[in-house]
Inverse folding.
């Protein structure tokens, strides 16, 4: 639902970094999106097509690397992917767990010309 | 020939930087601020009304209300005795640091001890946007169901306190408190929790005492 704000930030960051390198064009953007960041790729793409128009990033391809949420159990060491009904460790039922990955929301790289 | 440029920047870093500026502004004035988030209908505004009534005379209160289109919530807060600024987000589903920055400019911070920011009713987006407040509070409510921590982990992970509202409805709706709390324990171990009812007033004193203590500790640390 907040994809417009996210997409605008992606564009701002990419344009700033491209300007630092005197790029003429941005051709590709590489995004890392964790499952728990609640971002929908299609919506970002939709907004991107609109807001990148008229910039040097117009027509650039967005690449999404999706990262599933993974928890580590602090009691037994089990690494697992939680479901929408269960967060506890499936092996020992501990609630002492920590998120290993899945909350990322990063622009990792851009390709410029 | 395209050239790959590593960026590795958090996408919302611009918002995070502005949030830090908001924090500095609050700290310069010695105002403790909380961000109250919840789904629509969980009872944010009711909790805030009770909070304003309960703390008026003890603390000087200010409010920033985020709403999609109306000023109803700010009106309710003003009626209860707080200096209130309304932000109509114009359809945006969350408050961000820019909106809070402009609202701060409309408040006399030197006349405030506690600033309550009421976020837009939403269990997804507000969690991603830092505002610069010192603590964030999630208001959950019994009729929403006991699965919310599992469905909206992002929201439950980032908060300093969870208020479980409408406990007077526990006899009437299926709600497994142990299942709900297990989810919270996994996502946010040791987070402060309150069980209360804005309708009956049960549990409100503990919430008010906690909030007052937060402001006191903040002042002592300055």
């Amino acid at each position: 639902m907040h994809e417009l704000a996210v997409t605008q930030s992606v564009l701002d960051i990419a344009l700033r970094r491209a300007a630092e390198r005197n790029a003429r064009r941005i051709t590709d953007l590489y995004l890392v999106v964790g499952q728990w960041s609640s971002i929908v790729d299609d919506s970002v793409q939709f907004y991107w097509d609109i807001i990148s128009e008229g910039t040097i990033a117009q027509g650039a391809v967005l690449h999404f690397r999706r990262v599933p949420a993974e928890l580590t159990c602090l009691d037994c060491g089990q690494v697992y992917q939680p479901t929408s009904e269960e967060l506890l460790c499936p092996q020992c039922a501990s609630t002492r767990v920590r998120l290993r990955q899945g909350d990322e929301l990063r622009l990792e790289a851009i390709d410029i010309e | 020939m395209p050239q790959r440029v590593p960026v590795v920047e958090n996408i919302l870093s611009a918002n995070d930087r502005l949030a830090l500026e908001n924090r500095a502004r609050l700290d310069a004035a010695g105002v403790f601020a909380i961000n109250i988030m919840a789904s629509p209908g969980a009872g944010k505004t009711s909790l805030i009304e009770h909070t304003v009534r309960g703390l008026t005379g003890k603390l000087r209160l200010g409010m920033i209300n985020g709403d999609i289109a109306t000023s109803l919530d700010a009106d309710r807060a003003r009626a209860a005795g707080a200096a209130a600024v309304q932000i109509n987000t114009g359809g945006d589903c969350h408050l961000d640091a820019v909106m809070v920055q402009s609202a701060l400019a409309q408040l006399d911070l030197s006349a405030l001890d506690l600033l309550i920011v009421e976020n837009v009713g939403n269990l997804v987006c507000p969690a991603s946007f830092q505002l610069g407040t010192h603590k964030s509070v999630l208001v959950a409510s019994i009729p929403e169901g006991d699965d919310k921590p599992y469905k909206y982990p992002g929201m439950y992970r980032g908060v300093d306190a969870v208020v479980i509202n409408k406990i007077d409805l526990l006899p009437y709706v299926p709600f497994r408190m142990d299942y709900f709390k297990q989810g919270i324990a996994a996502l946010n171990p040791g987070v402060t929790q309150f069980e209360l009812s804005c309708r009956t007033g049960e549990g409100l004193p503990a919430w008010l005492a906690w909030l007052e203590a937060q402001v006191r500790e903040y002042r002592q640390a300055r």
In short: The interface with chain A takes residues 1-15, 92-94, 96, 122, 124-125, 127-129, 147, 149-151, 153-154, 157, 182-183, 185-187, 189 of chain B (CB under 8 Å). The radius of gyration of chain B is 18 Å.
